[in-house]
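Example record used in the benchmark description.
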Amino acid sequence: MLGMLRGIRDFLELIKAEHTLFALPFAYVGMVLAADGRPTWHEIGWITVAMAAARTVAMGINRLADRILDAQNPRTAGRPLVTGRISVGTARIGTGIAIALLIISAWQLGPLPTRLLPVALAFLVGYSFTKRFTWLSHYVLGFTDGLAPVGAWVAVRGSLFSRDDLAAWLLLLAVTFWIGGFDLIYACQDEAIDRACGLHAVPARFGVPAALTLSSLSHGLTMALLVALGLECRLGWPYAVGLMIIGALLVAEHRMVSPDDLSRLTIAFFHVNSAISVILLASVLASLL
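Model output (structure tokens):
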């Protein structure tokens, strides 16, 4: 029994389960916008399970796919799969359980989420391998995360391809460029090791200054898309206030790092971006309610 509990604890550490709270607000934004602020408890419950399961699948596959690369990187050499604290078999079982939960959640949420699930799974499984052949991997990661609010929207509305579904696409693009932008920053700390391993991250291929510039442009586009989202959904002044705070936080994030100083990168990545996702959800809820 103790061994099983220890294995569960190690698996949760492997996938950084606590960071699910960082991504979950975006799924909720898609949900509450689709439901005009009134989602059902059924929708809330199964969207939450689906989001947690999807993130577990993505992180589990990522850790399994990158375990050999992680062993060569001093920053990641202490991860449980590298040190042997958790076995490859345990990681595979945990990831498999998460896939099963994701399938059940999609089925509970309706026919269209079930039909679109293979597309989501393709990105959840495949994005970890894209850095091996394209520098666009940062935006593939962003697009994969952007599928969370889209999936929640589809679960509530049961549609995605009508004029009334424009908000879902704006959310998808906003999250794609937001996540892609801060992944560009995060990748700067691995510039040397990524180049040595032949990976195609932007900092390794084009240099840290280029990565930070592209990140700034991506976050500028994120803000433009969030403004467009507010106009499309007729969100009120609380959303406008939220956007001003988010814009200030993005500026602060970029001021924390420079090509010559990446020492505060961890703070920029976790604290600022976690606040952004929560503030976005809060401002949308306040506007709707």
